[in-house]
Structure formats: structure tokens, C-alpha cells
Amino acid sequence: MLEHRIDQSFEVRYSYPVCFTRGAFAPENRLLVDLMRAQPPGARARVLFAVDSGLAGVQPGCIEAIEKYALAHADAIELVRPPWIVRGGETSKRDPREVDEFYGYARDLRLCRHSYIVVIGGGAVLDAIGYAAATAHRGLRLIRMPSTVLGQNDAGVGVKNAINWQGRKNFLGTFTPPFAVINDFELLASVPAADRRAGIAEAVKVALIRDRAFFGRLHRQRLALAALAPHAMEPMIVRCAELHLAQIRNSGDPFERGSARPLDFGHWSAHKLEELSAHRLRHGEAVAIGIALDVQYSCRLGMIGNVAADTIMETLCDIGFTLDHAALDRLDVERALGDFREHLGGQLCITLLKGIGEGVEVNHIDIGTMRACIGELRASQRHARDEPIAPEVVS
Ligand SMILES: NC(=O)c1ccc[n+]([C@@H]2O[C@H](COP(=O)([O-])OP(=O)(O)OC[C@H]3O[C@@H](n4cnc5c(N)ncnc54)[C@H](O)[C@@H]3O)[C@@H](O)[C@H]2O)c1
Ligand SMILES: [Zn+2]
């Protein structure tokens, strides 16, 4: 029998800026230094820089540039040690070494909750160091500087971090908003072309579920995007980041307590296709196929028309995505949906389209129809390679 009950309730307001710049480490660029506030006022902000080894390898000058930047602003910031190079890519999430090393620095360099961690890297390094920074002392101030397209338009701007545990991707992680995000377009110059293209898939995804005009722009600029032209890529990154942020802000569920996950449009199959291809398919490449599949399904159910579906396929193909992959033959739809439901927690919730720019959540997928869509996608792509068709419906 209940003897006493106290209903506790409070709200915590989060806010953080997501800034876009060029040449963030040019000494005259004050963006980064002005974001950091020292405690107490007048003291210098203590900063640890963590740099993705993939970036440091191809832009070796960046380490020196960071050191010079810190020197130029020595009145405001104190480098607690030389920039720390973190192994890039999934290794940093798979192997606990990085996180452990971080905790060692936090202890030995006496980092506290007012210290800053500036992490510069791809989504994987942002996730791993973000997780370490969120858990040491229950949270240090994290400034993310994403250095890949996916990092700048998706992974780096949100509220999640994670590492893998015993082979399970993103098994350990927290919802921790960053202190700030700085997207420096110049960091992207050295990202391999295939990786830059893969990042565009997330923009197509969020445009299709939320913003018809943005999709129209991606469609019109599809050849410029295929050429990775900065005049198309940079506004794409800004708008995509804006839409991801709006989703987190306005969904009423920033920490994903419910089951709806609209930003995972096209992802239930993408996660599996990445695995089935032994990760030869990049995340964005798999997402492009996943989008195509869910578009076919939405079309078969009569939720969107053929012309709209063809326009989406054409956009994806012209940007340079291959929508046909042998891994599709080995995609176990029932199992993939089951695993996705487990990942969401609660009931199955899949985003489909009821129009371009209009996502809709459904709780049931007909397995037979989805299998038919896989066959249709594979056949249509073989056909499309022979004779591309292109009705334009989006203005
Ligand atoms: N937290 C989130 O909300 C969220 C969202 C989406 C994805 N993610 C995670 O992001 C990761 C994928 O991120 P990604 O696509 O950025 O790949 P990635 O982090 O694996 O980076 C790809 C490769 O590029 C290298 N690299 C990074 N910047 C570079 C640069 N400027 N020039 C040259 N090489 C560079 C890296 O060292 C790595 O080898 C996954 O682990 C995924 O789970 C997280
Ligand atoms: Zn994704």
C-alpha cells in the first residue's frame, strides 16, 4: 500500500548555437574563441582539442593551425595539452581505448564541467568523444566541429552520442546536447568524393519528409550536387542541418522516449543493407537505397503517385546513387523490421510518404508487398540503366 508519494517534475531548457564558417582556425576568426566563456570571468577557458586522425592525415597543417590559434588567443583560452589525435572512423566507437584515454586526460589534466572539449572529426569520432565528454564528471562542455558532410548536416548537430559495445552498434550512449557546433566548410575539402556524396542522402531524406521546396531545389540542382559543387553542397548542408534541428526542437520528443523516429526514414532497411554488404555500402549509400524502397512501397499503397516516385528516383540516380545492390536479395524484411522495432523500443513505427515533403508514420508493413517492392526496385534499376526517364513535377 502506498504510504507517501511526491510528484517531482521540472524542466531543463537547452540551447546551443550551430554556426557556419570558413577557416575556423585562422587567428583572425574569433568565432570559436568567442563561444568559450571562462569561469570565473577573467580566467582563461581550459580546452582540450581532439582531432580525427583521418583529417589530421590529409590536412596535417590543421594541428599546427590549432596550436597557433590557441597562441593567438592565449589571453582567453589555455590549451591543456597539444591537440590529441583520435583514430578516425568506426574504430573509435568500436574500441574502448579512445574513451578510456579521454577519461585519463580528464583526471590527469583536471578537466572539470567548465572545461571545453573541442572535437573535430567525422560522425564516428564526434560520437565517441561526445560520449566520453558526456560521461566524465557527468558532462564536460562539448564543442563539435564536424569534418564530414554527414557530420555537418546530420550527425554533428543533434543531441546524441554513442559507442559500440561487444559488436552492438550505438549500444552505449547518452542524449546530451552540445555546448556549440561549428561547421567549417573548408574542413570538407579533403573528404573523399564518395563520402561527400553519401552525405547528400540525409538531405534528400529530410527534404522528402519535411520540406517540399527543399526537395525541389535538390532536384533542380541534382547535377551540381553530383559534381559536388560547393554552390549546391553548402546551402544543402545548411538547410539539412536546419531541418534536423527543427525536428529535434519541435517534435516534442527530443530525447526519443516515444517510438516515432521520422528522421529514420529509409533507415530500417539501410541499417541491414550496410551489414549485409559487410559495410562496403556507406551509410548514406544504403540510406539512398532505403529511401528508394520506401518510396516504391508508398507508391504501391497509392500514398504517392507514379510521377512523384519517378522524380525521387531520378533525383537519387542523377546525384550519383546506385539504387540496386545485390544485398537487397539477402534482405530479410521480417527480421529487419523486427530488429528496427527493437531499436525503437515499443511498437513498430516506419515513416512513409504521403507526398513530397510529407512524411507519415505507419505501424504496419505488409511483408509480401515490401518484398514485391524490392523485386520492382531491382528490375526498375536495371531498366533505368538503359533508358532514364525524367518527368519534372517539383517546382
Ligand atoms: N549521433 C548522431 O546523431 C548520429 C547520426 C548519424 C550518424 N552517426 C554516426 O556517424 C558515424 C558516421 O559518420 P561519418 O559518415 O562522418 O563517417 P566517419 O566518422 O566514419 O568518417 C569517415 C572517414 O573519414 C575520415 N575523415 C573525417 N573527416 C575527414 C576530412 N575532413 N578529410 C578526410 N577524411 C576525413 C575519418 O577518419 C573516417 O576514416 C557513424 O558511426 C554513425 O553511427 C551519429
Ligand atoms: Zn542516417
Describe this structure in words.
The structure is a single chain. The model is unreliable at 389-393 (pLDDT under 50). The chain has 395 residues and is of the alpha/beta class. The longest helix has 21 residues, at 230-250. Helix 5 (97-108) packs across helix 6 (123-135) and helix 8 runs parallel beside helix 13 (283-300). The strands form 3 sheets. Strands 1, 2, 3, 4, 5, 6 and 9 form a 7-stranded parallel β-sheet that branches. It has a two-stranded antiparallel sheet with strand order 7-8. The protein starts with 17 loop residues before the first strand and ends in a 9-residue tail after the last helix. It is built from 16 helices and 11 strands. It has helices spanning 31-35, 53-58, 61-72, 91-94, 97-108, 123-135, 149-155, 193-210, 212-220, 222-226, 230-250, 267-276, 283-300, 306-319, 333-344, 367-386, and strands at residues 18-21, 45-52, 77-79, 84-86, 116-121, 141-146, 160-165, 168-175, 180-184, 350-355, 358-362. It has 2 domains: 18-190, Rossmann fold (3-Layer(aba) Sandwich), CATH 3.40.50; 193-386, Up-down Bundle (Dehydroquinate synthase-like, alpha domain). Bound molecules: nicotinamide-adenine-dinucleotide and zinc ion. Residues 52-55, 58, 88-90, 93, 121-125, 127, 147-148, 150-151, 154-155, 158, 160-161, 170, 187, 190-191, 195, 283 line the site of nicotinamide-adenine-dinucleotide.
